[in-house]
Structure to design on (346 residues):
């Protein structure tokens, strides 16, 4: 890792965040501005998101530097999420960092958003080091990785349709719970009885072996459709309102069981004792508890604190510290890419 003072910017979706990292661990400034205007649309409106990024980025960076007690001149290197994400939003951060780094004559680096999620846990617990199994569950991606070393990733499985967070958001909308859906479903699920709606756990069947192509992969859209069918029936019968918490619990249970089972398969086949969770869905306590319970006392499960699980610039700075420490730099040709492939996947 590098011992530089890094200023990182994250604008890949609907949050605007900046962080200053001193060395590998010391987050001396960190601000996350969350856009709340998307709730009324039931999801993120890309055009609205990128305009909002542009409005607040200077303020967010200014507040971060103030927290750190530093000025732009004290920054050794800059970092920015270059993708994947919403292109308009990404461009705001990428152009801001390129312009400022160029003006100051400092190095800068573009970071992959999902690689950054991998680094959230190690900011808080130095033991969250490879080799480990990583389950990254966000609004746009669902990845199961064997992290042999930083920068060396084997993709074991991924979602075949919706991302886990997207499924929470879509089901929340079906149930009239607003955006983002994850926190609302988790809250209601605590009061609900999952057994009232026994949805099957997707992508888990007897007879699956490691060579089966669905052994590690995940899926959420069939489950979402199953919830939709149930909602339609209940609407006809006039009993939807009193079933919302039970449907939330049943949906969450099926998601959690699927994610925990796939993670355990990776733990068994890789022999890894450590599991690292990341992404917004890692805020879900039922998921974290289930995985901890299944891993048992012999293993260690690292769950980032809620602020570091969802999108934030501290994790981007930490990933940048690794890449800059290896001597990597981006040039002015760096561009934002909505579909940026993850580096180091073998
Ligand atoms: O990682 P993230 O902040 O943004 C992306 O990179 O996509 O993840 C956002 C996602 C949303 O879909 C949101 O509903 C979900 O994380 N989420 C949750 C919870 N908190 C946020 N899902 C389940 N349970 C939660 N408590
Ligand atoms: Zn994310």
């Amino acid at each position: 890792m590098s011992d530089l003072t890094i200023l990182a910017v994250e604008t890949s979706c609907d949050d605007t965040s900046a962080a200053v990292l001193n060395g590998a661990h010391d987050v001396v400034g960190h601000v996350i501005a969350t856009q709340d205007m998307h709730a009324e649309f039931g999801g993120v409106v890309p055009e609205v998101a990128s305009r909002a990024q542009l409005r607040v980025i200077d303020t967010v960076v200014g507040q971060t530097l103030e927290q750190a007690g530093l000025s732009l001149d004290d920054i050794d290197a800059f970092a920015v999420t270059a993708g994947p994400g919403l292109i308009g939003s990404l461009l705001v951060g990428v152009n801001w960092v390129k312009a400022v780094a160029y003006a100051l004559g400092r190095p800068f680096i573009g970071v992959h958003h999902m690689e950054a999620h991998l680094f959230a846990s190690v900011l808080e617990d130095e033991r969250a080091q490879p080799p480990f199994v990583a389950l990254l569950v966000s609004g746009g991606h669902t990845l199961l990785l064997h992290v042999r070393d930083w920068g060396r990733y084997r993709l074991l499985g991924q979602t075949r349709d919706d991302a886990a967070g997207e499924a929470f958001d879509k089901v929340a909308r079906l149930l009239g719970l607003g955006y983002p859906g994850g926190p609302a479903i988790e809250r209601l699920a605590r009061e609900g009885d999952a057994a009232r709606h026994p949805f099957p756990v997707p992508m888990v069947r007897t007879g699956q072996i490691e060579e089966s192509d669905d052994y590690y992969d995940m899926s959420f859209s069939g489950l979402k459709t199953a919830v939709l069918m149930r909602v339609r029936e209940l609407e006809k019968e006039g009993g939807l309102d009193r079933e919302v918490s039970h449907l939330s619990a049943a949906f969450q249970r099926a998601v959690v069981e699927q994610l925990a089972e796939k993670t355990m398969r990776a733990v068994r086949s890789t022999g890894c004792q450590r599991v690292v969770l990341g992404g917004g869905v890692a805020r879900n306590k039922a998921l974290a508890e289930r995985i901890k319970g299944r891993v048992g006392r012999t293993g260690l499960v690292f769950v980032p604190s809620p602020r570091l699980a969802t999108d934030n610039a501290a994790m981007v700075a930490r990933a940048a510290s690794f890449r800059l420490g290896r001597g990597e730099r981006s040039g002015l040709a760096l561009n934002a890419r909505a579909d940026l492939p993850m580096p180091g996947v073998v």
User: Anything to note?
Assistant: The chain has a mean pLDDT of 96.
